[in-house]
Amino acid sequence: MTRTLYDLAGKDPAMRFSPFCWRIKIALRHKGLDFDTIPWRFTEKDVIARTGQGRVPVLVDDERWVHDSWQIALYLDESYPDRPPLMRGAAERAMARFVSSWCDQTLHPILRSTFLLAIYDAAADKDRAYFRESREKLFGAKLEKLAMERSAGLKALVQALQPAEATLNVSRWLAGDEPSYTDYCLFGSLQWGRVLSREPIVSPDSAVGRWFERVLDLFDGYGRQAHIVSSETAHRSAV
Amino acid sequence: MTRTLYDLAGKDPAMRFSPFCWRIKIALRHKGLDFDTIPWRFTEKDVIARTGQGRVPVLVDDERWVHDSWQIALYLDESYPDRPPLMRGAAERAMARFVSSWCDQTLHPILRSTFLLAIYDAAADKDRAYFRESREKLFGAKLEKLAMERSAGLKALVQALQPAEATLNVSRWLAGDEPSYTDYCLFGSLQWGRVLSREPIVSPDSAVGRWFERVLDLFDGYGRQAHIVSSETAHRSAV
């Protein structure tokens, strides 16, 4: 039996930045399930065509193809009930749904704007024209115009993270006493920024910053070992 | 033993619009605890001075004064462990903290702008000058300039409610299978808009709209019986 995850990669195949793929990679570690990742590029729609859509993560679990990070998380808990649950009961499941949607809606526009040029610069050559064209069409402006200045972006991020900061001031993990899929949702978002930046994107003095370090430590430092953007590439996004 | 809640009221003492007070009133019903409310106006800081701050809700439970909606919710669960819990365990507590902060940060600026003139018009005569002056100083513009046009406000509200909509599409209540304090936090925010508006502020066709009706039905329709702004007063905010 094989288990593979199609994982968004850059020009450098070691560069993995998708927040949705990070959710699932660390979720697979939480479940204790072995897996291989296949570097996938934005333009490789044909490779995952049998899911009927064009985005990753896509998990191929032996014969079964599953896409969409939320559906994959549900699938993992349903298919491996003997492994540590990603969501223990209705309250953790509800919170994970809330927080995943909140990440998509509130944090991702800020992170996307802040790291837009970093993503473009890190993208595979064959993806760059596609990335520029699709994003400029979607948002109606040039990438360089859509990009948010780094310090303004990170300031907006601190503000947007307020509900997580309030929660982590009273709770060690986002959904209570143990790490769960809610943590991995927010982790994916911040890891996206982390791998595209040479500098920390959240303050180590904040509750979110301290929690992020704890998540990076989980599973033998799985998240911490991620490949970080090279200085040269990171430079352009930081100016 | 007496139990009283200082509850923000308008010119008409039956008009109760504070989202934070609504959280606690319905929480007290959830716990099955009897209480009286005392209509309180923005300028009556002296009445609650012994809490060391100037905002409601303030609960006086026999001899004990408790302020801040989150602290009151924790107090109720701690002091009445034999009554139905507002938050069952660490996951529900974490989610309530997250969602209460998210309401304050994301929904309240929209609701405040949309119903700003309705609040001003509904306020007690002695509160109006205070309300105008404090808000204009805080936000640096005239109330009439700060007010958001109703249809734009409600459109922004739908967008902001997306995490709740996603959650309520997969869960009957916000934190799982039973109503809990997380529900009362969002309920307070939407009830604030509801009592200041003659028209529904969320679509009955949305998951949030259907859930809101369920909360209004709880405890013999406690929330549904709230006094709604009169047509005359509501008119100015709707234009």
Would you spell out the secondary-structure blueprint of this structure?
Two copies of one chain form a homodimer.
Chain A: E1 3-8, H1 19-31, E2 36-40, E3 58-61, E4 64-67, H2 69-79, H3 89-114, H4 116-122, H5 125-139, H6 143-146, H7 150-160, H8 162-168, H9 181-195, H10 207-221, H11 231-238
Parallel strand pairs in A: 1-2
Antiparallel strand pairs in A: 1-3, 3-4
Helix pairs in contact in A: 1-2, 1-9, 3-4, 3-7, 3-9, 4-11
Low-confidence stretches of chain A: none
The SS-based structural class of chain A is alpha+beta
The oligomeric state is homodimer
Largest sheet of chain A: 4 strands, mixed
SSE pattern of chain A: EHEEEHHHHHHHHHH
Cα gyration radius of chain A (Å): 17 Å
How many distinct helices of chain A?
11
* Total strands of chain A: 4
Name the chain pair with the biggest interface and residue counts per chain.
Answer: A-B, 30 and 30 residues
- Could you tell me the mean pLDDT of chain A? 95
Beta-sheet strand percentage of chain A? Answer: 5-15%
Helix content of chain A: 55-70%
Task: Characterize the overall form of chain A.
Answer: globular
For the largest beta sheet of chain A, what order do the strands appear in spatially? 2-1-3-4
Gap between N and C termini of chain A, in Å?
Answer: 47 Å
